[in-house]
Structure to design on (269 residues):
């Protein structure tokens, strides 16, 4: 019993390192098992002390020794039980924090990869809209994580109340939670900024694609009209018609030059 008492007296505050917790739980389980093995000996001692009441002149000495041994036994078993419950509580909180943080951090990594990725082809509106949908989905997930993050912080507070928060492992756990919380907030801001920029890019890309499509449809027609022009006639009436046709073609070219400029500006935006 003295060895077990010495072990209990030498205990330091419970660590929040899973390996340390597991190691101590195994040691504690072994001690509890050993103490349970000796329980019959305590019962035998108590029975013997009771039997000696009528046989010994110094019965008070025997009773005092028996009382002291029982008291030590009770204190030891109580301390071991309390320590076991403490370890189990800390272990559950650490496991819970780990399980809560893992999916949160996975989503944060996914969002970070998207934020840091180069922009898609700025003239491809469809790809831009695909990325917009990804951003909106991630923003929704990150915002929905707020209650989960709040629960993580609550569990962290509970954990810090049960361990020495000045230890390196406690500091590390606290830092991990704090970093995840701040990272989530930063990524929401960055995703919102990227979303605004991308929406503008998609708008310009739509203008570019529309203008380009119109130009591509018009160019063969314009080329055909140019090639269909006849040599200048000597007949005044024919010349008048040729001039009218030339003016219409010129106006059409001017109109589509403006369309080309619109497409070019959209491509540069």
């Amino acid at each position: 019993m003295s060895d077990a008492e010495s072990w209990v007296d030498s205990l330091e505050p419970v660590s929040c390192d899973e390996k340390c917790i597991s190691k101590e739980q195994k040691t504690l389980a072994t001690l509890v098992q050993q103490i349970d093995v000796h329980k019959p000996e305590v019962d035998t001692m108590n029975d013997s002390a009771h039997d000696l009441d009528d046989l010994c002149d110094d019965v008070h000495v025997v009773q005092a020794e028996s009382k002291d041994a029982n008291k030590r036994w009770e204190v030891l078993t109580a301390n071991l039980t309390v320590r076991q419950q403490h370890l189990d509580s800390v272990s559950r909180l650490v496991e819970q924090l780990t399980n809560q943080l893992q999916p949160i951090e996975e989503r944060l990594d996914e969002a970070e990869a998207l934020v840091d990725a180069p922009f898609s082809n700025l003239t491809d509106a469809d790809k831009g809209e695909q990325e917009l949908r990804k951003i909106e989905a991630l923003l929704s997930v990150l915002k929905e994580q707020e209650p989960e993050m709040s629960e993580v912080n609550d569990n962290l507070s509970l954990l810090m109340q049960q361990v020495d928060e000045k230890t390196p492992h406690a500091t590390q756990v606290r830092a991990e939670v704090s970093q995840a919380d701040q990272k989530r907030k930063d990524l929401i801001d960055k995703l919102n900024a990227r979303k605004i920029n991308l929406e503008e890019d998609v708008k310009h890309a739509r203008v570019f694609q529309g203008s380009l499509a119109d130009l591509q449809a018009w160019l063969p027609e314009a080329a055909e009209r140019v090639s269909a022009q006849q040599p200048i006639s000597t007949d005044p009436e024919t010349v008048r018609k040729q001039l009218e046709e030339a003016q219409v073609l010129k106006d059409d070219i001017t109109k589509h030059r403006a369309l080309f400029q619109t497409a070019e500006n959209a491509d540069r935006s």
Remarks:
- The mean pLDDT is 79.
- The CA atoms of residues 100 and 151 lie 9 Å apart.
